[in-house]
């Protein structure tokens, strides 16, 4: 990293972009929003790549740089390249945590919370060995149908895993589908199927019932939890134990989400060309149906 570049410069520059966003011309506004939302990619990519990702010309980014007082595009990109790319994070150390901890009560609490998240994420990923991961991927790929279940706050994890994973693995099926119980949707589970369940203390009774049913029926069982032993009478084939320590009364899910992201990466890679085509088809359908908002006009809101 260039010692003359101040990492805090990117924070000030991003805030400056946010403050001026509404006053920028439409194309410059689109370019500025991309920089705000994707600082790491912006720091790594060439101006042409950024232009391709946003659908505006490379000159639009050059004009934005000049509009902000920079002589060249490279001068505008330099702070992001030095300080905000994910490839640089490991080299930044944890001095920022020590500094944050001295910034009053809010800073001390934020530093403690951030350090906790880093710790539970690191531990969860360390426990997620390549051997365990590959065995789980193989199980999901060979199952006739893979059911995904969770309740309450863990349901958000299951929903996300199913939402992304089904594009690579169409046999994924989220249960319960509506307001019923998971057991209702697992009536026909067989030894050819798989159940992947998420639950964290205090453990969900309905998830435990689903795990027992799947085990009794001979289905493959994958458990993602803060413990390898959550209740009697549960047979598991694969377990991903994740750290869920928290500074508040509820279990933290940051470690579990990091594990899921890695698992999804493996599934999409294993899906190969078929997975890539399905992902492109999903995206094209959403684009054609107007699912995503695109500027410069704001979406209408009823009064």
Comma- or semicolon-separated keywords:
56% helix; Rossmann fold; Arc Repressor Mutant, subunit A; 303 residues; 2 domains; alpha/beta; single chain
Describe the protein's architecture and organization.
- It is a single chain.
- This protein is α/β, with parallel strands linked by helices and 303 residues long.
- It has 2 domains: 8-86, Winged helix-like DNA-binding domain superfamily/Winged helix DNA-binding domain (Arc Repressor Mutant, subunit A, Orthogonal Bundle); 126-287, Glucose-6-phosphate isomerase like protein, domain 1 (Rossmann fold, 3-Layer(aba) Sandwich).
- It is 56% helix and 8% strand.
- It is built from 13 helices and 5 strands.
- It has helices spanning 8-20, 26-37, 39-44, 47-54, 58-67, 73-83, 95-100, 104-127, 130-142, 154-168, 182-185, 205-216, 254-288, and strands at 146-149, 172-175, 194-199, 220-225, 238-241.
- It has a 5-stranded parallel sheet with strand order 2-1-3-4-5, with helices on both faces.
- Helix 12 (205-216) links the parallel strand 3 (194-199) and strand 4 (220-225).
- Helix 8 (104-127) packs across helix 13.
- The chain is globular.
- Mean pLDDT is 87; it is low at 1-5.
Task: Tell me the total number of β-strands.
Answer: 5
**Beta-strand percent range:** 5-15%
CA(first)-CA(last) distance: 50 Å
Instruction: Give the CATH topology of the largest domain.
Output: Rossmann fold
Short description:
With 303 residues, the protein is an alpha/beta fold. It contains 13 helices and 5 strands.
């Amino acid at each position: 990293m260039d010692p003359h570049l101040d990492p805090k410069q990117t924070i000030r520059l991003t805030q400056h972009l946010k403050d001026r966003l509404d006053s920028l011309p439409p194309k410059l506004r689109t370019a500025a929003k991309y920089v705000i939302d994707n600082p790491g990619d912006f720091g790594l990519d060439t101006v042409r790549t950024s232009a391709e990702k946003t659908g505006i010309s490379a000159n639009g980014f050059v004009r934005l740089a000049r509009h902000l007082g920079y002589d060249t595009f490279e001068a505008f990109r330099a702070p992001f390249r030095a300080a905000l790319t994910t490839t640089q994070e490991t080299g930044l150390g944890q001095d920022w945590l020590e500094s944050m901890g001295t910034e009053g009560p809010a800073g001390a609490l934020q530093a403690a919370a951030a350090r906790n998240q880093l710790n539970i994420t690191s531990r969860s990923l360390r426990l997620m060995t390549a051997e365990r991961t590959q065995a789980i991927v193989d199980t999901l790929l060979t199952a006739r149908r893979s059911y995904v279940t969770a309740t309450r706050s863990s349901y958000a994890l299951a929903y996300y895993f199913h939402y992304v994973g089904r594009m690579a693995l169409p046999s994924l099926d989220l249960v319960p589908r509506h307001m019923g119980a998971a057991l209702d949707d697992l009536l026909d589970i067989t030894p050819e199927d798989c159940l992947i369940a998420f639950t964290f203390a205090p453990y969900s009774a309905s998830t435990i019932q689903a795990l027992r049913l799947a085990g009794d029926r001979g289905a493959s069982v994958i458990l993602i939890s803060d413990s390898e032993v959550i209740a009697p009478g549960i047979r598991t084939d694969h377990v991903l134990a994740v750290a869920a320590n928290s500074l508040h009364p509820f279990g933290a899910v940051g470690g579990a989400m990091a594990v899921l992201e890695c698992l999804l990466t493996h599934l999409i890679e294993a899906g190969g060309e078929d997975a890539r085509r399905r992902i492109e088809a999903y995206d094209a359908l959403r684009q054609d149906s107007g699912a995503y908002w695109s500027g410069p006009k704001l979406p209408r809101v009823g009064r």
